[in-house]
Write a structure and sequence with these properties.
It contains 16 helices and 7 strands. The chain is of the alpha+beta class. The chain has 2 domains: 5-219, Hypothetical protein, domain 2 (Endonuclease III, domain 1); 230-361, Nucleoside Triphosphate Pyrophosphohydrolase (Alpha-Beta Complex).
Amino acid sequence: MFELAPIVTPLLEWFDGHARVLPWREEPTPYRVWISEIMLQQTRVEAVKPYFERFMLALPNVEALANVEEDRLLKLWEGLGYYNRARNLQKAARLVVELYGGELPNEVSLLLQLPGIGSYTAGAIASIAYQKPFPAVDGNVLRVIARVIADRQDVLNQSVKKQYEEAVLAVIPKDRPGAFNQALMELGAMVCVPNGMPRCEECPWKSFCKARELDCIAELPHKAKKKPRMIEEKTILLIQDEKKVAIRKRPKKGLLAGLYEFPALEGIQTREAAIQYVEELGFKAIHVKELERSKHIFSHKEWHMIGYAIRVDELSRPDGDANLQGFELIETSKTEESYPIPAAFMAYTRYLNIKLGNSKFQKE
């Protein structure tokens, strides 16, 4: 196991003078810590701040989260991506209400039994909210430790992560476990950064950092190459009249489950193919405009898209019309209020004057 004792005192002293003011740090209740940590997965701090504040206003406690309608929950999450995070939050909230009276348990072993909570999140909740000495090792922590000890093991390997967790557990101060874990994360976010050169002169570990001594900072942490993402091509259709647009809810399982989408064709299709599809739905196209190409990156795949805005002469059709293939005819203004649309379509929603996620709250 690695010896990390030298990092503790200088790290905490540095954190005391450099910790950022963040909304979830102002009142680190178990619920607020939990929500913030789930939001921060795969997402930048600055992007999360307004989401967190709106979420807390709308769903201030576990009971509110457990009882909210799914569309409302996903609308609050709209634009953050990785929507299973939100669904797992609600599944866990319902269990917390049922099993623990609405209070998150303070034992890591019990936290780990809740949907969406892994070792990092459990450690963060236990240490920050309950002041229990458990490690919380995320990508930032893996990076700063790999560099300070100049470790060339693959940090994506679960056995290596386990080694790091054990090393942190051995030195985490029992009187300040939450501050210590946050300090490790903060160092990785603000000083020992993932992209570009780290700010070594500002680092509290600069006098004993092995990667700095060996001049191998840029080579660490070592990560095995991932498989290339699968590319899927799609043609997005904005079928609309003066007031309504065609959308439908995606299946309950799979990518972007339960969110709303526009009609789409597989592959990059021609204007003629788009018109033919619209006519198959039972509409008559009166104007077609080709839209820009766009790209959206998911964890394991990429969508490469082209769009067509297609004006039709009538969108008022009887309910249950089989030709519509599950699409609903919704007033455009209502989609912004009540129908969660994934950020994958953001390049095209602007043609409908629909704003998603944080863009709804930004001043012009």
